[in-house]
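Bumping with the actual sequence this time:
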Amino acid sequence: MKELVNLGTYVLNPSKQNSTEKTVVVLGIARSGTTMVAKVLKELGVFMGENDSPVVEDTELSKLLEQDRNIQKFEELVEERNEQHKVWGWKRPEAFRYIKLFENKIRNPHLIIVFRDPLAIGMRESISMQAELFQTMTKVQRRYTAIIRYLQGTDKTCLLVSYEKVLQKQDAFVDSLVDYLGLDLKKKQIEAARKCIEIDSPIYLEKTSRKKHPRGAVLTSGNGSMKGWAYNGKNKQRQQVDVFVDGKLVDTIVAKDYRKGLEMKGIGDGHHAFTYDYSNHLKPSPKFTLIDFKIHETDIVLNNGPILNAQPLFFVHIPKVGGTSFRKMLFPKYKAQNIFPSARTMREHKGYPSHEVLMNLDEETLNDVQLIFGHYPFICAQDIGKSFLTACMFRNPYSRMISNIFHFLRKNPEASAREIFEQRKAKTADTQVKYFADATYDGKPKGYSHKEADEGDLKQAIENMKKLDFIGINERYDESLKLFEKTFNLDLGDMIMKNVGEGKDMSLFDDELVQEIKSSVALEQRFYDEVVLEYERRKSLTEQNAKDSNSELD
Protein backbone atom coordinates (compact mmCIF):
# COMPACT_ATOMS: atom_id res chain seq x y z
CA MET A 1 0.00 0.00 0.00
CA LYS A 2 3.05 2.24 0.06
CA GLU A 3 2.31 3.47 -3.47
CA LEU A 4 -0.97 4.99 -2.23
CA VAL A 5 0.70 7.26 0.34
CA ASN A 6 0.61 10.94 -0.62
CA LEU A 7 3.93 12.49 0.37
CA GLY A 8 2.99 15.92 -0.94
CA THR A 9 5.69 16.26 -3.61
CA TYR A 10 5.70 15.55 -7.34
CA VAL A 11 8.54 15.85 -9.84
CA LEU A 12 7.46 17.20 -13.22
CA ASN A 13 9.79 16.65 -16.19
CA PRO A 14 12.58 14.87 -14.25
CA SER A 15 15.98 16.15 -15.31
CA LYS A 16 17.88 13.93 -17.72
CA GLN A 17 21.10 15.81 -17.05
CA ASN A 18 23.68 14.32 -14.76
CA SER A 19 25.19 17.72 -14.07
CA THR A 20 25.91 18.69 -10.47
CA GLU A 21 25.38 22.34 -11.44
CA LYS A 22 21.84 23.56 -10.77
CA THR A 23 19.92 26.78 -10.19
CA VAL A 24 17.01 26.44 -7.80
CA VAL A 25 14.13 28.91 -8.07
CA VAL A 26 11.43 28.84 -5.37
CA LEU A 27 8.13 30.15 -6.70
CA GLY A 28 4.49 30.26 -5.69
CA ILE A 29 2.38 32.89 -4.01
CA ALA A 30 3.22 35.12 -1.07
CA ARG A 31 2.27 33.41 2.25
CA SER A 32 2.17 29.99 0.61
CA GLY A 33 5.19 28.51 2.40
CA THR A 34 8.01 29.56 0.07
CA THR A 35 9.97 30.99 3.02
CA MET A 36 9.88 27.64 4.76
CA VAL A 37 11.21 25.91 1.63
CA ALA A 38 13.97 28.52 1.28
CA LYS A 39 15.02 28.02 4.92
CA VAL A 40 15.26 24.26 4.40
CA LEU A 41 17.36 24.77 1.26
CA LYS A 42 19.67 27.11 3.14
CA GLU A 43 20.21 24.52 5.89
CA LEU A 44 20.95 21.95 3.19
CA GLY A 45 23.85 24.11 2.04
CA VAL A 46 22.22 25.77 -0.96
CA PHE A 47 23.35 29.39 -1.33
CA MET A 48 20.19 31.56 -1.18
CA GLY A 49 21.71 35.03 -1.41
CA GLU A 50 23.61 37.38 0.86
CA ASN A 51 20.89 38.34 3.30
CA ASP A 52 19.67 37.77 6.82
CA SER A 53 16.07 38.52 5.97
CA PRO A 54 13.44 36.50 7.85
CA VAL A 55 11.87 35.67 4.47
CA VAL A 56 15.20 34.48 2.94
CA GLU A 57 14.59 36.56 -0.15
CA ASP A 58 17.39 37.52 -2.54
CA THR A 59 16.28 41.07 -3.29
CA GLU A 60 19.39 41.77 -5.36
CA LEU A 61 18.16 39.57 -8.21
CA SER A 62 14.51 40.55 -8.04
CA LYS A 63 15.36 44.28 -7.94
CA LEU A 64 17.20 44.00 -11.26
CA LEU A 65 14.07 42.65 -12.96
CA GLU A 66 11.26 44.41 -11.12
CA GLN A 67 12.67 47.88 -10.46
CA ASP A 68 15.77 48.42 -12.58
CA ARG A 69 14.39 46.41 -15.51
CA ASN A 70 17.92 45.50 -16.48
CA ILE A 71 18.22 42.06 -18.06
CA GLN A 72 21.90 42.51 -18.84
CA LYS A 73 22.88 43.13 -15.20
CA PHE A 74 20.63 40.24 -14.16
CA GLU A 75 22.53 37.92 -16.49
CA GLU A 76 25.86 39.23 -15.18
CA LEU A 77 24.86 38.55 -11.56
CA VAL A 78 23.60 35.07 -12.51
CA GLU A 79 26.95 34.33 -14.16
CA GLU A 80 28.74 35.55 -11.02
CA ARG A 81 26.64 33.17 -8.89
CA ASN A 82 27.34 30.33 -11.32
CA GLU A 83 31.08 30.84 -10.91
CA GLN A 84 30.84 30.88 -7.11
CA HIS A 85 28.37 28.04 -6.53
CA LYS A 86 27.59 24.76 -8.27
CA VAL A 87 24.14 24.81 -6.73
CA TRP A 88 22.50 28.08 -5.71
CA GLY A 89 18.96 29.28 -5.24
CA TRP A 90 16.66 32.25 -5.58
CA LYS A 91 13.40 32.54 -3.69
CA ARG A 92 10.89 35.03 -5.02
CA PRO A 93 7.21 33.96 -5.08
CA GLU A 94 6.16 36.80 -7.39
CA ALA A 95 8.88 35.99 -9.94
CA PHE A 96 6.46 33.58 -11.54
CA ARG A 97 4.75 36.63 -13.13
CA TYR A 98 7.80 37.20 -15.33
CA ILE A 99 9.27 33.69 -15.45
CA LYS A 100 9.48 33.75 -19.26
CA LEU A 101 12.05 36.53 -18.95
CA PHE A 102 14.60 34.53 -17.01
CA GLU A 103 13.84 30.79 -17.25
CA ASN A 104 16.23 30.40 -20.19
CA LYS A 105 18.86 32.70 -18.72
CA ILE A 106 19.71 30.53 -15.70
CA ARG A 107 21.86 27.40 -15.67
CA ASN A 108 20.03 24.05 -15.48
CA PRO A 109 16.91 25.46 -13.78
CA HIS A 110 15.24 23.34 -11.09
CA LEU A 111 11.99 25.03 -10.14
CA ILE A 112 10.24 24.45 -6.81
CA ILE A 113 6.61 25.57 -6.79
CA VAL A 114 4.72 25.62 -3.50
CA PHE A 115 0.95 25.15 -3.25
CA ARG A 116 -1.15 26.01 -0.19
CA ASP A 117 -4.81 26.10 0.77
CA PRO A 118 -6.21 29.47 -0.52
CA LEU A 119 -8.18 30.02 2.70
CA ALA A 120 -4.99 29.66 4.76
CA ILE A 121 -3.20 32.19 2.54
CA GLY A 122 -6.15 34.57 2.75
CA MET A 123 -6.23 34.33 6.54
CA ARG A 124 -2.47 34.99 6.78
CA GLU A 125 -2.82 38.06 4.56
CA SER A 126 -5.74 39.40 6.56
CA ILE A 127 -3.86 38.93 9.86
CA SER A 128 -0.41 40.20 8.86
CA MET A 129 -1.20 42.58 6.00
CA GLN A 130 -4.78 43.56 6.86
CA ALA A 131 -5.95 42.41 3.43
CA GLU A 132 -9.58 41.62 2.60
CA LEU A 133 -10.10 37.85 2.89
CA PHE A 134 -12.17 37.05 -0.17
CA GLN A 135 -10.29 39.41 -2.46
CA THR A 136 -7.09 37.63 -1.47
CA MET A 137 -8.61 34.18 -2.01
CA THR A 138 -9.83 35.19 -5.46
CA LYS A 139 -6.37 36.51 -6.35
CA VAL A 140 -4.78 33.28 -5.11
CA GLN A 141 -7.08 31.17 -7.27
CA ARG A 142 -6.23 33.22 -10.35
CA ARG A 143 -2.50 32.95 -9.67
CA TYR A 144 -2.64 29.19 -9.16
CA THR A 145 -4.64 28.80 -12.38
CA ALA A 146 -1.90 30.69 -14.23
CA ILE A 147 0.79 28.52 -12.59
CA ILE A 148 -1.01 25.32 -13.58
CA ARG A 149 -1.28 26.53 -17.18
CA TYR A 150 2.45 27.21 -17.18
CA LEU A 151 3.21 23.75 -15.77
CA GLN A 152 1.08 22.12 -18.46
CA GLY A 153 3.21 23.66 -21.18
CA THR A 154 6.74 23.80 -19.73
CA ASP A 155 9.61 21.40 -20.30
CA LYS A 156 11.51 22.71 -17.26
CA THR A 157 12.19 20.38 -14.32
CA CYS A 158 9.82 21.25 -11.47
CA LEU A 159 9.19 19.98 -7.94
CA LEU A 160 5.59 20.60 -6.91
CA VAL A 161 5.15 20.91 -3.15
CA SER A 162 2.05 20.75 -0.95
CA TYR A 163 2.67 22.98 2.07
CA GLU A 164 0.08 21.15 4.18
CA LYS A 165 1.63 17.75 3.45
CA VAL A 166 5.12 19.02 4.23
CA LEU A 167 4.00 19.92 7.76
CA GLN A 168 2.73 16.36 8.19
CA LYS A 169 5.62 14.53 6.54
CA GLN A 170 8.68 16.63 7.28
CA ASP A 171 11.26 13.89 6.87
CA ALA A 172 9.84 12.83 3.52
CA PHE A 173 9.93 16.42 2.25
CA VAL A 174 13.58 16.98 3.16
CA ASP A 175 14.48 13.64 1.58
CA SER A 176 12.62 14.63 -1.60
CA LEU A 177 14.58 17.90 -1.79
CA VAL A 178 17.89 16.08 -1.35
CA ASP A 179 16.96 13.61 -4.11
CA TYR A 180 15.59 16.33 -6.40
CA LEU A 181 18.82 18.33 -6.26
CA GLY A 182 21.18 15.36 -6.04
CA LEU A 183 22.82 16.68 -2.87
CA ASP A 184 25.47 14.71 -0.98
CA LEU A 185 25.01 15.76 2.64
CA LYS A 186 25.89 14.75 6.15
CA LYS A 187 23.25 13.52 8.58
CA LYS A 188 23.60 16.66 10.78
CA GLN A 189 22.70 18.95 7.85
CA ILE A 190 19.59 16.94 7.07
CA GLU A 191 18.50 16.97 10.71
CA ALA A 192 19.02 20.75 10.92
CA ALA A 193 16.93 21.21 7.77
CA ARG A 194 14.06 19.19 9.26
CA LYS A 195 13.97 21.48 12.30
CA CYS A 196 13.30 24.48 10.00
CA ILE A 197 9.89 23.15 9.18
CA GLU A 198 7.50 24.84 11.56
CA ILE A 199 4.16 26.52 11.20
CA ASP A 200 3.74 30.21 12.05
CA SER A 201 7.17 30.85 13.54
CA PRO A 202 6.78 33.69 16.10
CA ILE A 203 9.93 35.41 14.85
CA TYR A 204 8.75 35.21 11.24
CA LEU A 205 5.28 36.53 12.08
CA GLU A 206 6.69 39.42 14.08
CA LYS A 207 9.19 40.51 11.45
CA THR A 208 6.85 40.18 8.47
CA SER A 209 3.73 41.73 9.97
CA ARG A 210 2.87 45.22 8.81
CA LYS A 211 1.05 46.04 12.02
CA LYS A 212 4.18 47.22 13.82
CA HIS A 213 6.06 48.68 10.87
CA PRO A 214 5.62 51.85 8.83
CA ARG A 215 3.30 51.31 5.90
CA GLY A 216 0.90 53.11 3.63
CA ALA A 217 -0.26 53.57 0.07
CA VAL A 218 -0.98 56.14 -2.60
CA LEU A 219 -4.59 55.61 -3.55
CA THR A 220 -5.70 58.12 -6.18
CA SER A 221 -4.42 60.90 -8.37
CA GLY A 222 -6.16 63.49 -10.49
CA ASN A 223 -6.93 67.19 -10.74
CA GLY A 224 -3.35 68.04 -9.84
CA SER A 225 -3.27 66.20 -6.51
CA MET A 226 -2.60 62.76 -5.03
CA LYS A 227 -4.24 61.13 -2.03
CA GLY A 228 -2.78 58.47 0.21
CA TRP A 229 -2.05 57.38 3.76
CA ALA A 230 0.91 56.41 5.97
CA TYR A 231 0.98 54.87 9.44
CA ASN A 232 3.61 53.75 11.90
CA GLY A 233 2.10 51.11 14.17
CA LYS A 234 5.20 51.02 16.35
CA ASN A 235 5.15 54.56 17.75
CA LYS A 236 1.60 55.48 16.61
CA GLN A 237 2.73 59.03 15.82
CA ARG A 238 1.73 60.95 12.71
CA GLN A 239 3.98 59.62 9.98
CA GLN A 240 6.14 61.89 7.86
CA VAL A 241 6.28 61.18 4.13
CA ASP A 242 9.07 62.26 1.75
CA VAL A 243 8.04 63.37 -1.76
CA PHE A 244 10.46 62.74 -4.64
CA VAL A 245 10.05 64.25 -8.10
CA ASP A 246 12.17 62.56 -10.77
CA GLY A 247 14.33 61.08 -8.00
CA LYS A 248 14.92 64.41 -6.18
CA LEU A 249 13.55 65.10 -2.69
CA VAL A 250 11.28 68.13 -2.99
CA ASP A 251 9.03 67.98 0.07
CA THR A 252 8.23 66.28 3.37
CA ILE A 253 4.61 66.14 4.48
CA VAL A 254 2.76 64.74 7.51
CA ALA A 255 -0.01 62.17 7.10
CA LYS A 256 -2.54 63.55 9.61
CA ASP A 257 -5.88 63.95 7.80
CA TYR A 258 -8.83 61.89 8.98
CA ARG A 259 -10.28 59.15 6.80
CA LYS A 260 -13.11 57.01 8.16
CA GLY A 261 -12.08 54.00 6.06
CA LEU A 262 -8.69 53.88 7.78
CA GLU A 263 -10.25 53.86 11.23
CA MET A 264 -12.71 51.14 10.23
CA LYS A 265 -9.79 48.96 9.09
CA GLY A 266 -8.06 49.41 12.42
CA ILE A 267 -5.33 51.71 11.13
CA GLY A 268 -4.75 53.88 14.20
CA ASP A 269 -7.40 56.51 14.89
CA GLY A 270 -7.94 57.19 11.17
CA HIS A 271 -5.94 60.46 11.20
CA HIS A 272 -3.22 59.13 8.87
CA ALA A 273 -4.23 60.36 5.41
CA PHE A 274 -2.73 63.04 3.18
CA THR A 275 -3.50 64.99 0.03
CA TYR A 276 -0.55 66.36 -1.96
CA ASP A 277 -0.76 69.04 -4.64
CA TYR A 278 1.75 68.10 -7.34
CA SER A 279 0.67 70.62 -9.99
CA ASN A 280 3.67 72.92 -9.36
CA HIS A 281 6.04 70.08 -10.25
CA LEU A 282 4.62 69.33 -13.69
CA LYS A 283 6.80 70.39 -16.60
CA PRO A 284 5.31 72.77 -19.17
CA SER A 285 7.07 70.92 -21.99
CA PRO A 286 5.97 67.46 -23.22
CA LYS A 287 8.02 65.65 -20.58
CA PHE A 288 6.83 63.12 -18.02
CA THR A 289 7.16 63.64 -14.30
CA LEU A 290 7.86 60.72 -11.97
CA ILE A 291 6.57 61.19 -8.41
CA ASP A 292 7.43 58.83 -5.55
CA PHE A 293 6.26 58.87 -1.95
CA LYS A 294 8.44 57.24 0.72
CA ILE A 295 8.20 56.84 4.48
CA HIS A 296 10.44 59.59 5.89
CA GLU A 297 14.13 58.62 6.00
CA THR A 298 13.45 55.03 4.93
CA ASP A 299 13.41 53.04 1.66
CA ILE A 300 9.75 52.10 2.14
CA VAL A 301 7.95 53.23 -1.03
CA LEU A 302 4.22 53.94 -0.81
CA ASN A 303 3.66 53.66 -4.53
CA ASN A 304 5.32 52.47 -7.71
CA GLY A 305 6.15 55.90 -9.07
CA PRO A 306 3.16 57.04 -11.13
CA ILE A 307 3.89 59.04 -14.24
CA LEU A 308 2.23 62.44 -14.27
CA ASN A 309 2.00 65.25 -16.75
CA ALA A 310 -0.20 68.20 -17.42
CA GLN A 311 -0.92 66.42 -20.71
CA PRO A 312 -1.36 62.66 -20.33
CA LEU A 313 -0.45 60.23 -23.14
CA PHE A 314 -2.79 58.87 -25.83
CA PHE A 315 -1.17 55.97 -27.73
CA VAL A 316 -2.83 55.16 -31.04
CA HIS A 317 -2.37 51.40 -31.37
CA ILE A 318 -2.71 50.40 -34.99
CA PRO A 319 -3.08 46.60 -35.22
CA LYS A 320 0.00 44.55 -36.18
CA VAL A 321 2.58 47.33 -35.93
CA GLY A 322 4.33 46.32 -32.67
CA GLY A 323 2.10 48.30 -30.33
CA THR A 324 1.57 45.39 -27.91
CA SER A 325 5.24 45.44 -26.97
CA PHE A 326 4.99 49.14 -26.29
CA ARG A 327 1.96 48.54 -24.08
CA LYS A 328 3.88 45.96 -22.02
CA MET A 329 6.60 48.50 -21.35
CA LEU A 330 4.34 51.46 -20.63
CA PHE A 331 1.70 49.85 -18.39
CA PRO A 332 4.06 49.16 -15.42
CA LYS A 333 4.99 52.86 -15.41
CA TYR A 334 1.45 53.89 -14.46
CA LYS A 335 -0.90 53.10 -11.62
CA ALA A 336 -3.79 50.86 -12.67
CA GLN A 337 -6.47 53.46 -11.90
CA ASN A 338 -4.76 55.92 -14.25
CA ILE A 339 -4.87 53.64 -17.33
CA PHE A 340 -7.64 53.19 -19.87
CA PRO A 341 -8.41 50.50 -20.57
CA SER A 342 -7.27 48.73 -17.41
CA ALA A 343 -6.31 45.06 -17.50
CA ARG A 344 -9.67 44.30 -15.87
CA THR A 345 -11.58 46.30 -18.49
CA MET A 346 -9.76 44.46 -21.27
CA ARG A 347 -10.70 41.12 -19.76
CA GLU A 348 -14.34 42.17 -19.51
CA HIS A 349 -14.43 43.35 -23.13
CA LYS A 350 -12.15 40.55 -24.39
CA GLY A 351 -9.79 43.18 -25.79
CA TYR A 352 -9.90 46.93 -26.20
CA PRO A 353 -13.38 48.41 -25.55
CA SER A 354 -15.14 50.10 -28.46
CA HIS A 355 -14.79 53.75 -29.48
CA GLU A 356 -18.18 54.41 -27.91
CA VAL A 357 -17.04 53.18 -24.48
CA LEU A 358 -13.96 55.40 -24.65
CA MET A 359 -15.77 58.50 -25.83
CA ASN A 360 -18.50 58.12 -23.19
CA LEU A 361 -16.20 58.01 -20.17
CA ASP A 362 -17.62 60.16 -17.39
CA GLU A 363 -15.75 63.34 -16.46
CA GLU A 364 -14.50 62.00 -13.12
CA THR A 365 -12.98 58.89 -14.72
CA LEU A 366 -11.44 60.88 -17.55
CA ASN A 367 -9.84 63.31 -15.10
CA ASP A 368 -7.94 60.42 -13.50
CA VAL A 369 -6.76 58.92 -16.81
CA GLN A 370 -3.06 59.46 -17.52
CA LEU A 371 -2.66 56.87 -20.30
CA ILE A 372 -5.04 55.79 -23.06
CA PHE A 373 -3.81 52.90 -25.17
CA GLY A 374 -5.90 51.09 -27.77
CA HIS A 375 -7.20 50.59 -31.30
CA TYR A 376 -8.65 54.08 -31.41
CA PRO A 377 -8.26 56.49 -34.36
CA PHE A 378 -6.36 59.73 -33.94
CA ILE A 379 -9.60 61.75 -33.97
CA CYS A 380 -10.50 60.24 -30.58
CA ALA A 381 -7.51 61.97 -29.00
CA GLN A 382 -8.72 65.27 -30.46
CA ASP A 383 -12.41 64.93 -29.52
CA ILE A 384 -12.29 63.22 -26.14
CA GLY A 385 -12.47 66.47 -24.16
CA LYS A 386 -9.04 66.43 -22.51
CA SER A 387 -5.61 67.45 -23.78
CA PHE A 388 -3.30 64.49 -24.48
CA LEU A 389 0.20 64.02 -25.81
CA THR A 390 -0.08 61.60 -28.73
CA ALA A 391 2.11 58.75 -29.94
CA CYS A 392 1.93 56.00 -32.55
CA MET A 393 4.01 53.21 -34.07
CA PHE A 394 3.88 52.58 -37.83
CA ARG A 395 4.89 49.67 -40.05
CA ASN A 396 5.60 48.94 -43.69
CA PRO A 397 2.07 48.22 -45.10
CA TYR A 398 3.08 45.04 -46.93
CA SER A 399 4.69 43.59 -43.79
CA ARG A 400 1.69 44.65 -41.71
CA MET A 401 -0.72 42.93 -44.13
CA ILE A 402 1.38 39.74 -44.17
CA SER A 403 1.43 39.73 -40.36
CA ASN A 404 -2.35 40.19 -40.30
CA ILE A 405 -2.87 37.26 -42.66
CA PHE A 406 -0.69 34.99 -40.54
CA HIS A 407 -2.59 36.09 -37.45
CA PHE A 408 -5.86 34.83 -38.94
CA LEU A 409 -4.21 31.74 -40.43
CA ARG A 410 -3.29 30.67 -36.89
CA LYS A 411 -6.96 31.05 -35.96
CA ASN A 412 -8.13 29.26 -39.13
CA PRO A 413 -5.45 26.65 -39.97
CA GLU A 414 -7.67 25.03 -42.64
CA ALA A 415 -7.85 28.23 -44.68
CA SER A 416 -5.32 29.30 -47.35
CA ALA A 417 -3.39 32.56 -47.36
CA ARG A 418 -5.39 33.71 -50.37
CA GLU A 419 -8.73 32.95 -48.66
CA ILE A 420 -7.70 34.98 -45.61
CA PHE A 421 -6.50 37.83 -47.80
CA GLU A 422 -9.80 37.94 -49.74
CA GLN A 423 -11.78 37.86 -46.50
CA ARG A 424 -9.72 40.52 -44.75
CA LYS A 425 -8.71 42.83 -47.64
CA ALA A 426 -11.53 45.35 -47.23
CA LYS A 427 -11.00 45.53 -43.46
CA THR A 428 -7.21 45.73 -43.40
CA ALA A 429 -6.18 47.60 -46.55
CA ASP A 430 -5.25 51.24 -45.91
CA THR A 431 -5.55 50.70 -42.15
CA GLN A 432 -2.84 53.21 -41.23
CA VAL A 433 -4.41 55.83 -43.47
CA LYS A 434 -7.87 55.26 -41.98
CA TYR A 435 -6.61 55.65 -38.42
CA PHE A 436 -5.50 59.19 -39.24
CA ALA A 437 -8.10 60.35 -41.77
CA ASP A 438 -10.92 62.26 -40.08
CA ALA A 439 -13.13 62.00 -43.12
CA THR A 440 -13.26 58.25 -42.72
CA TYR A 441 -15.24 58.79 -39.54
CA ASP A 442 -17.51 61.60 -40.76
CA GLY A 443 -15.83 63.90 -38.29
CA LYS A 444 -16.84 61.70 -35.35
CA PRO A 445 -15.42 58.42 -34.08
CA LYS A 446 -18.63 56.46 -34.56
CA GLY A 447 -16.85 53.30 -35.58
CA TYR A 448 -14.21 52.01 -37.94
CA SER A 449 -14.96 52.44 -41.62
CA HIS A 450 -14.07 49.71 -44.07
CA LYS A 451 -14.63 51.79 -47.21
CA GLU A 452 -11.69 52.21 -49.54
CA ALA A 453 -9.55 55.22 -48.67
CA ASP A 454 -9.03 57.89 -51.32
CA GLU A 455 -6.64 60.76 -52.10
CA GLY A 456 -8.52 63.09 -49.74
CA ASP A 457 -8.10 60.59 -46.90
CA LEU A 458 -4.40 60.29 -47.66
CA LYS A 459 -3.87 64.06 -47.56
CA GLN A 460 -5.74 64.40 -44.27
CA ALA A 461 -3.94 61.38 -42.75
CA ILE A 462 -0.53 62.92 -43.52
CA GLU A 463 -1.58 66.21 -41.91
CA ASN A 464 -2.80 64.47 -38.75
CA MET A 465 0.22 62.19 -38.58
CA LYS A 466 2.47 65.26 -38.38
CA LYS A 467 0.50 66.47 -35.34
CA LEU A 468 1.72 63.46 -33.30
CA ASP A 469 4.12 64.20 -30.46
CA PHE A 470 5.92 60.91 -31.17
CA ILE A 471 6.34 58.79 -34.29
CA GLY A 472 7.92 55.34 -34.18
CA ILE A 473 8.83 52.84 -36.91
CA ASN A 474 8.39 49.10 -36.38
CA GLU A 475 11.29 48.24 -38.69
CA ARG A 476 13.53 50.47 -36.54
CA TYR A 477 12.06 49.37 -33.25
CA ASP A 478 14.98 49.75 -30.83
CA GLU A 479 15.94 53.08 -32.39
CA SER A 480 12.32 54.25 -32.01
CA LEU A 481 12.30 53.33 -28.33
CA LYS A 482 15.38 55.46 -27.73
CA LEU A 483 13.69 58.34 -29.55
CA PHE A 484 10.58 57.88 -27.39
CA GLU A 485 12.72 58.07 -24.23
CA LYS A 486 14.43 61.26 -25.43
CA THR A 487 11.15 62.85 -26.54
CA PHE A 488 9.39 62.34 -23.21
CA ASN A 489 12.34 62.13 -20.80
CA LEU A 490 11.19 58.65 -19.78
CA ASP A 491 13.31 55.55 -19.07
CA LEU A 492 11.60 52.44 -20.45
CA GLY A 493 14.30 50.22 -18.95
CA ASP A 494 16.21 47.40 -20.60
CA MET A 495 13.44 44.82 -20.65
CA ILE A 496 12.62 45.58 -24.27
CA MET A 497 10.72 42.82 -25.97
CA LYS A 498 9.50 42.93 -29.49
CA ASN A 499 6.59 40.65 -30.32
CA VAL A 500 8.04 39.03 -33.40
CA GLY A 501 5.60 36.11 -33.37
CA GLU A 502 6.19 32.74 -34.93
CA GLY A 503 8.33 32.10 -37.98
CA LYS A 504 6.45 32.94 -41.17
CA ASP A 505 6.31 30.41 -44.01
CA MET A 506 6.30 32.66 -47.08
CA SER A 507 5.90 29.62 -49.37
CA LEU A 508 2.17 30.01 -48.66
CA PHE A 509 2.25 33.13 -50.84
CA ASP A 510 2.72 32.68 -54.60
CA ASP A 511 4.03 35.54 -56.76
CA GLU A 512 0.55 36.50 -57.93
CA LEU A 513 -0.76 36.80 -54.36
CA VAL A 514 2.26 38.84 -53.29
CA GLN A 515 1.61 41.33 -56.10
CA GLU A 516 -2.09 41.55 -55.19
CA ILE A 517 -1.21 42.29 -51.57
CA LYS A 518 1.25 45.00 -52.57
CA SER A 519 -1.34 46.53 -54.91
CA SER A 520 -3.96 46.57 -52.11
CA VAL A 521 -1.70 48.70 -49.90
CA ALA A 522 -0.38 51.07 -52.58
CA LEU A 523 -2.10 54.11 -51.07
CA GLU A 524 -1.02 53.12 -47.57
CA GLN A 525 2.55 52.72 -48.84
CA ARG A 526 2.57 56.36 -49.94
CA PHE A 527 1.37 57.31 -46.47
CA TYR A 528 4.09 55.18 -44.87
CA ASP A 529 6.76 56.84 -47.03
CA GLU A 530 5.65 60.21 -45.61
CA VAL A 531 5.78 58.74 -42.08
CA VAL A 532 9.38 57.64 -42.60
CA LEU A 533 10.38 61.09 -43.89
CA GLU A 534 8.78 62.75 -40.85
CA TYR A 535 10.46 60.22 -38.53
CA GLU A 536 13.86 60.98 -40.07
CA ARG A 537 13.27 64.72 -39.71
CA ARG A 538 12.43 64.38 -36.01
CA LYS A 539 15.29 62.01 -35.34
CA SER A 540 17.78 64.43 -36.88
CA LEU A 541 16.31 67.33 -34.90
CA THR A 542 16.56 65.36 -31.65
CA GLU A 543 20.17 64.42 -32.36
CA GLN A 544 21.04 68.02 -33.20
CA ASN A 545 19.42 69.28 -29.99
CA ALA A 546 21.43 66.74 -28.02
CA LYS A 547 24.66 67.94 -29.67
CA ASP A 548 23.78 71.57 -28.94
CA SER A 549 23.10 70.74 -25.28
CA ASN A 550 26.41 68.90 -24.95
CA SER A 551 28.33 71.75 -26.54
CA GLU A 552 26.84 74.18 -24.02
CA LEU A 553 28.22 72.01 -21.24
CA ASP A 554 31.75 71.90 -22.72
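The C-alpha coordinates above came from a reply further down the thread. DSSP finds 23 helices and 18 strands in the chain.
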